[in-house]
Amino acid sequence: MRRTHALAAVLLAVGALVPATPASAAPASITWHGCATGPDDRLGQDLDAAGAQCGDLAVPVDYRRPRGRTITLALSRIKASDPARRRGVLMINPGGPGGSAIRQVLLAGHLPDVAARYDLVGMDPRFTGRSSPLRCDWKTDTFIRSAGPDRRSFDESTAFAHDLARGCAGLDHELLRAASTRNTARDMDAVRAALGEPKVSYYGVSYGTYLGSVYLQMFASRADRFVLDSSVDPDRFGPGLLRAVAPAVADALRDWATTATGQGLGATAAEVLSTVDGVAKAAERRPLKVGGYAVDGHLLPFLLFAGVYQDDAESRAGLTDVVRTLRDAALGKPVTPSPALDELLHGLTTGEGPATDRSGTPIVCGDRAAWRDPDAYYRDIRANRAAEPLFGPLARNVNPCAFWPVSPAEPATAIGNATPVLMLGATGDPATPYPGQLALHRALTGSRLVTVPDRFRHGVFLVAGNACADAATKDYLLGGALPAADRTCR
User: Mean pLDDT throughout 244-269?
Assistant: First the structure.
């Protein structure tokens, strides 16, 4: 999946045939209004209560045809609380892809000094949230599942992925072809222009770092202060975005096991991990009955993956509770899932949860071509099963992009520029592993990386409880000076 630098340069040249923004197109205007759409719209009510405005902006489906068909972007804004000292606009993206960004302006309440200087702006990426959403016909929130232990279970995964792709195939193919990070970056720049801003600042986390780096590559002269938190490897984003995560997830699970000793799962971390291994094998033999749900070998590794995203005490205790529940189910005991586990399983088996991954799948499949031969995925899993026994079949499994009804409309963006950027990362990040963060750091030669070591979590700013990293971020956004060198925040 990794491209050579030479091939990447060729692909970037081909991609440049699609203009970044139409030079002849005048900026469209934003229609601002209240945020709540009705009495049941809790998000809109929260935004209204915080003093936010919401807005709509029409943008081209295809930027090569600027006067053709349009879609509507959903925006939110909280204006700078100190207009006399206002610097500009800070756009925020929470990741995904598929995550709604309009709620992110509520960070104003946690960042009064930043919110004094910037208008905080959220833009739901095209086809997600409230931005002309595409809704695949799925009965699950995410395509992420384990391939299981053998060829039979892998073939079940293949059928599952094929069904999910078929659930998107009935959507408008012109819109599916227009779902990509490059087009979302163009949308960001259209918002910048519509706001009348010569430049835009940005904070993005997880997938938001890839979106931010693509914007930097396409629109470097229009970028002001960019912060990228928990970065995605720019050469991996697309259908194979998870292929490298298995070792990092296993490390995070080992870290959790040290906190779960003496709580009914084992007296040592090794015994706790042995319990997990036994539960996983039991789920592969026969689905575990957890309340009204069946947790099989496809689903159980995902529950563990979801449980190690954060390493705070509350999250670690929550995963311990989940594993105890699954252990009891494996022993044949009647169990009732906790409210949090019930909510997660409900979304995974009905599609009625947040469905962020489902919303973002057209972008994942639209950014880079997938392997089309299921056997290629199976060979990859087998080649790595000894080193990655539990999470390799999850990370390397076939997904709906292998059966996607349309091909990417343009090549993925090759990242490589010297624009100043502040990057944040944790060495034990299980979702965007640190080696991939270093890859983006090398590609963005003007970047400075602030590292939080020995933390097994995804996301740093404001959520890791690291005063050093938080201060570096605020100093950059408010003062504009990057650290003189990369920094480790212990």
Answer: 98
Is cis: bond before 94, omega within 30 of 0?
no
Q: Pull the structure tokens for residue 214.
A: 């693509």
Return contacts of 9-12, CB within 8 angstroms, 24+ apart: 9/414, 11/411, 11/412, 11/414, 12/411, 12/413, 12/414
Q: pLDDT tens for residues 264-296?
A: 999 999 999 999 999 999 999 999 999 999 999
Residue 119's identity, in one-letter code, is D
Q: Which residue, 386, 391, 238, 434, is CA-closest to 305?
A: 391
- In whole angstroms, give the CA distance from residue 16 to residue 10: 10
* CA angle 381–383–387, rounded 5-degree value: 90
Question: What average pLDDT is seen over the chain?
Answer: 94
Task: Dihedral sign for Cα 90, 93, 9, 437, please.
Answer: positive
Q: What are the structural domains, with CATH classification, of the chain?
A: 5-135+180-239+413-488 (3.40.50.1820), 151-172+242-403 (no CATH)
Closest CA to 182 of 415, 359, 1: 415
CB hemisphere CA count around 385 (13 angstroms): 16
For β-strands 288-290 and 70-78, DSSP reports them as unpaired
- Within a 10 A sphere around the Cβ of 45, how many other Cβ atoms? 16
Residues composing the chain: 490
- The structure's pTM equals 0.93
Give the CB-side neighbour count of residue 1, counting CA atoms within 13 A.
Answer: 23
